[in-house]
Amino acid sequence: MNKVSLVTTLMRVVLGILFIAHGYSKFQMGLGNVSAWFESAGTPGFLAYIAGPLELFGGILLVIGLFTRYVSALFIIMLIGAIVTMKWSLGLLGSGGTTGYELDLAYLMLTVYLMAAGSTQLSVDHILFGRGKQS
């Protein structure tokens, strides 16, 4: 395994862990409460019932490296939606003690990279589909 593959694997696993943490926290708060928070921010509440499971289960799939490109594509859609609907008005760095979209932008760039790069040798994708990348 070369350096790029190793770094790509580390990025995929760490990003997966971060999404698991975000999804888990949504379940801990209760998706109904997250839905109410989304609505208070002007975002349709039903999206909480999509975002929570996507973050949790999509994060797990990233950690093991299964369907990496497809999961990354879903995260790209979710992150663009989060930036546009909930974070854009706060600015890049936020204001008044609220966070901006800088972290979402970093996550977005990582998921764009993972969608383009596909999986590495240390992934279930490689075991199932071979050649290190999904076709």
Automatic annotation (TrEMBL):
The keyword Ribonucleoprotein does not apply. It is a multi-pass membrane protein. It is found in: Cell membrane. It comes from Paenibacillus baekrokdamisoli. Keywords: Cell membrane, Membrane, Transmembrane, Transmembrane helix. Belongs to the DoxX family. The lineage of its organism: Bacteria, Bacillati, Bacillota, Bacilli, Bacillales. Its main location: membrane. GO terms for cellular component: plasma membrane. It holds the Pfam family DoxX. Coiled coil: none annotated. This is Uncharacterized protein.
